[in-house]
Amino acid sequence: PPRGSLIVFDHGLWHDGAEVLAGVKHVLRSDLLFAADDATDAVADTSGEAGPFTPGHDGYVWKLAALGDGGVASAGRDAVVRLWSNDGAPRGTLVGHSQSILALAQTSDDALYTLSRDRTLRCWDLDRRIETGCVVAHIGAGLALAAEANGSLVSGGADGALRRWQHMDIVANREAAHAGWIWDIALHGETAISVGEDGYARIWRCEDLSLIATLPHPHPLRAVAVRSDAEGITLVCGDMLGYVHVWHATDGQHWRRSGMQARHRAAVRALRWLPDGRLGSAGEDGRILVDDRTAKGQWHEVARHANFATDLLAFRDGRLLSAGYDGSLRVANGSGHSPTTNTITMENI
Question: Are 194 and 182 in contact (CB under 8 A)?
Answer without folding.
Answer: yes
